[in-house]
Structure to design on (313 residues):
């Protein structure tokens, strides 16, 4: 009995029909791809935009019988999604997406930062999935994005290393603020438009935000050094509530507290920033007050703000 699915028993016509069907299937895959690209590039509907980006991020364009020699990587579609997302909110001019010469690969620049930083996405190969948005020269991963899980997480270590340390001498503070605001806005749009779980981390300006520091049981000398630094810069550091930790009143009603958030049981030292308009984050404090920046960086092993350990552990 002839097995019609066994290539060795097919007639010539049968083999050609199977071959032709495989070619058609491969071309149909290509057509599906172009429709998703049209949707990603042209749609003004936020739901259609994220749907196209999610499919393209995992799309397999090639088949055994049809291959397309010029392709962007799956990570590149996240850059296109980010650019289109900002465009839908009238911020399309805040980023520039460019192709690298000689092969299909996209890179992005934050317009205020210009060529002092280029960015792309790196696909996470672990079971977590998702992608990391990184500065290409330093490899610093500024945030993590997962479209399937609707999750966004900023990375305090990378933000500090790139913007507070690496670019400190060459990029003005206002340029840094404007550049980072683009990333904040992107995260905010994901939260507001799609209900994403977003951890703004060191960039969170809400008065209710507690920034946990790396050392759960903070050495007493760390706070003492802030007392000294504040006095040298004509600011008064006072004891915190009930003598726990310390408080410093800065300009324009900004108040910074550092204290043990768990007076009983396992200690947890945190930083908080309060201002009437809730527009100042710990990142802003580091940018605006050099003596606090120096204190933070000199004690970074103890004071570094903790990022999501499941993502940046």
């Amino acid at each position: 009995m002839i097995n019609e699915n066994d290539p060795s028993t097919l007639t010539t016509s049968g083999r050609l029909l199977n071959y032709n069907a495989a070619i058609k299937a491969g071309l149909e895959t290509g057509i599906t791809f172009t429709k998703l690209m049209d949707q990603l590039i042209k749609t003004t509907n936020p739901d259609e935009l994220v749907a196209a980006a999610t499919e393209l991020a995992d799309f397999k364009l090639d088949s055994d019988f049809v291959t397309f020699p010029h392709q962007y990587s799956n990570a590149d579609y996240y850059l296109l999604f980010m650019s289109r997302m900002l465009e839908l909110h009238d911020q399309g001019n805040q980023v520039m997406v460019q192709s690298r010469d000689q092969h299909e690969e996209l890179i992005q620049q934050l317009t205020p930062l210009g060529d002092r930083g280029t960015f792309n996405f790196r696909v996470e190969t672990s079971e977590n999935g998702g992608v990391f948005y990184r500065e290409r020269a330093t490899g610093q991963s500024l945030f993590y994005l997962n479209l399937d899980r609707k999750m966004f997480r900023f990375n305090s270590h990378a933000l500090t290393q790139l913007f507070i340390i690496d670019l400190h001498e060459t990029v003005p503070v206002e340029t840094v603020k404007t550049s980072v605001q683009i990333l904040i806005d992107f995260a905010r749009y994901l939260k507001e438009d799609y209900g994403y779980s977003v951890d703004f981390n060191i960039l969170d300006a809400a008065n209710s935000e507690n920034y946990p520091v790396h050392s759960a049981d903070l050495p007493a000398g760390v706070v003492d050094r802030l007392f000294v630094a504040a006095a040298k810069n004509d600011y008064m550091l006072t004891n915190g509530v009930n003598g726990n930790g310390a408080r410093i009143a800065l300009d324009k009603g900004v108040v910074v507290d550092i204290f043990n958030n768990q007076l009983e049981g396992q200690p947890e030292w945190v930083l908080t920033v309060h201002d009437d308009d809730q527009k100042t984050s710990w990142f802003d404090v580091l940018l605006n007050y050099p003596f606090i920046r120096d204190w933070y960086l000199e004690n970074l092993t103890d004071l570094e703000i903790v990022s999501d350990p499941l993502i940046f552990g």
